[in-house]
Amino acid sequence: MITDEPVLIVLAGPTAAGKTAAGIRLAEYLKTEILSADSRQFYSEMKIGTASPSGEELDRVPHHFIGHLSIHDSYNVSRFEMDAMQKLEKLFRKNRYALMVGGSGLYIHAVCQGIDELPDPDPDTREKLKHLYFESGIKVLQDKLFEVDPVYYRQVDLNNPVRLIRALEVYFSMGIPYSLLRKNKPKSRPFKILKMGLELPRDELNHRIHQRVDKMMESGLLDEVCQLLPNQHLNALNTVGYKEIFAYLEYRVSLDGAVENIKTNTRRYAKRQMTWFRRDEDIHWLHPMDFTGMLRLIHG
Fold first, then answer.
1. The pTM is what?
2. pLDDT tens profile 277-286
3. CATH top-level class for 7-115+185-299?
């Protein structure tokens, strides 16, 4: 990429693909800092189950948006877009390059192209929809969305209750389908963007996922989740690695069964991440150890 403008380098890919290690190596080479685009790592109480960078890794390269929130804080992708843009403005004053690393496609999209300004959620409506989900399951949300907004129904990840609830709360609050409010027009950015994706053969990625889950358990994931049990109703904790252990703590599954469920659901999560990223034709795909290939893309 030959340009005199500031450059945001995006390092994306599925969980366990090696983004953290590759990002730190790249940031050290470019003498820059890292913006995390992993929405699960935003919360300070969720270190082990989200595979947040270790203290040693954080010491090697300054990171932003790692553990900067509490699970009790209200936060969304629009806030992240604003916060990340402000941080990039400061970083580009002292460095030509900035690096964004993560697997949350919507958050990466927010920084690269912007997010439509949508109404703040109505707390009562959201609570009713969350209660409906917990009582009746995700199929009810899917059916309601198909009824009120078939266009967005065909676009959304139907296995993501957060997205379904958000679309439904917008509709019930405003009476307007969510799809009509999403303009999807890219915003102008004062920097160039280079997107790199890390991928591994499926068998290798699955092996790394299983190893990571085992390491999480050895590092104290059970204790971490036990401490969070009184807050399991919070949206931040409705994620892989936590909800499976909650099921164990409520005697709904054995511990071995919970661990296997984490592995299974993490594999499914990685597959959904790749489905999202594969839609982006601007991503250059590389092996996580192909540092030469990354430099070739950066320097043209």
1. 0.82
2. 998 999 999 9
3. alpha beta
